[in-house]
Known about the structure:
Elements: E1 4-6, E2 11-13, H1 16-20, E3 26-27, H2 33-47, E4 50-53, H3 57-66, E5 71-73, E6 78-81, E7 91-96, H4 102-114, E8 118-123, H5 130-134, H6 137-142, E9 145-150, H7 156-161, E10 168-172, H8 184-191, E11 198-200, H9 206-222
Parallel strand pairs: 3-4, 7-8, 7-9, 9-10, 10-11
Antiparallel strand pairs: 1-2, 4-6, 5-6
Amino acid sequence: MENFEDLGFSKVDYGREKRQGFPEVIYGEGKTIEQIEPIMEKLIEKHGKVMVTRLDKEKGESLVSTFPLAHYDYTARILLYGKPENYYGGEVMVVCAGTSDLFVAEEAAITAEWMGCKVKRLYDVGVAGIDRLLAFREEITNADVLIVIAGMEGALPSVIGGLVQRPVIAVPTSVGYGAHLQGITPLLAMLSSCSSGMSVVNIDNGFGAAYQAALILKLVSEGVNHEIVIS
């Protein structure tokens, strides 16, 4: 198999799965239907599956009519074709501060599921009503990897980071009032967090958070052992 195929307007990366663990995912925003369709065809031919992110409703419905086995999710703006070949042990919990952040939360959850992860959702548990979060403390501490999504001041990942001994992947969202600065404020808050073991992805990047979580579970499932030499 060649590493990529040049379609003129796009070089389809067939080697992505071997290099990075998962096939190339199509970023749909800014691409036309005429560009997305042939890329999808090539990836389905080589991998038997494909995912397209950031698709508006019109493009999503058009692609489903061309690929009837595909499914378009309106909240996440994701198109899926095919299922994972492998399912990993462990659980990814996607925790979302507010209902307004669901478009990012569902992007993360659906991406992680498509990559072979078991996903549990916990939504609308922001710090403004801290009892809602603490009511699920046992489930939170039992998760293997947590993707924590928040807009406004972005406090939720720091709170959860102080409760668990597992990786926390924080996702700032563009949801908030003026001084929120379209996500810059929670991004900086998360980067400045005093909670240890927390990593941060870009604003609204549920996909990136899910990819990182899936790689963590993939590594654990592979049972990789490295010989330790003490001299």
